[in-house]
Amino acid sequence: MKKDYSFVLLDLDGTITDSGPGIMNGFEYAIKKMGGEVNDRSSLRRFIGPPLEESFGVLLGYSPEDTAKAMGYYRDYYFNRGGINENTVYPGIEIVLSELKGRGKKLLVATTKIEKGAKLVIEHFALSKYFAFISAANSTDRKTKASVIRYGLEQVGCKDISQALMIGDRHYDIEGAKEVGLDSVGALWGYGSREELKEAGATYLLNKPGEILNLFR
């Protein structure tokens, strides 16, 4: 059923841009600096989507101290050694952003990336003009996808969450949307599988960015 969503939130990594190469290289760099090895590079795909603390602390099992140290190495690679530029905008995304903004929709980025990184990527690809707000994570009260979504909606004055739609490629995006009470799109062009996104409870599953426009009246 088509709806007139007024607010559209998009995840950044794996949804707006294919940032996989830079993220995976950053994790490989950090793991090696921590004394580890990466024998199967494809295993690094699982780190595209989760917050850094979860990736290092839960998925890799680092202690809080080692997690903080590894995050420092990762950010050094990402911001100072070119990782942030190992990134491309998915084909068709900018057309969708332009069309939705032209229809009067308020577009937001909702990412568990830190604000500095999110803004650098959006500005690097000259996408700032499409977004009313970039809602990113911090180290205190915005560490989860749900908290980032809530914060973004507050900042743009969304009073009716039935008017908002979250688009993302990993179960974190879908579960965060569900926690807040939003409909969601599982973006199959990103890094999550159909099974992952379906199991998380995505309202819609779409194969290509252009299909987003079909959801609107």
CATH architectural grouping of the largest domain: 3-Layer(aba) Sandwich
- Category by helix and strand content: alpha/beta
- How large is the share of residues in beta strands? 15-25%
Oligomer: single chain
How many independent structural domains? Answer: 2
CATH class of the largest domain reads: Alpha Beta
What is the topology, as strand order, of the major beta sheet? Answer: 5-4-1-6-7-8
Radius of gyration: 17 Å
CATH superfamily of the largest domain: HAD superfamily/HAD-like
Overall residue-averaged pLDDT value:
96
Shape: globular
Q: How many H/I helices?
A: 8
Question: Characteristics of this structure?
Answer:
DNA polymerase, domain 1, alpha/beta, Rossmann fold, two-stranded antiparallel sheet, 217 residues, 2 domains
Tell me what the structure shows.
The protein folds into two domains: 7-18 and 87-215, 3-Layer(aba) Sandwich (Rossmann fold); 20-85, DNA polymerase, domain 1 (Orthogonal Bundle), CATH 1.10.150. Helices cover 40% and strands 16% of the residues. The chain has helices at residues 20-33, 52-59, 64-80, 93-102, 115-124, 145-155, 171-180, 194-200; strands spanning 7-10, 17-18, 88-89, 106-114, 133-137, 164-168, 183-187, 204-206. The strands form two sheets. The chain has a six-stranded parallel beta sheet, sandwiched between helices. Strand 7 (183-187), helix 8 (194-200) and strand 8 (204-206) form a beta-alpha-beta unit. Helix 1 packs across helix 3 (64-80), helix 2 (52-59) packs across helix 3 and helix 7 packs parallel to helix 8 (194-200).
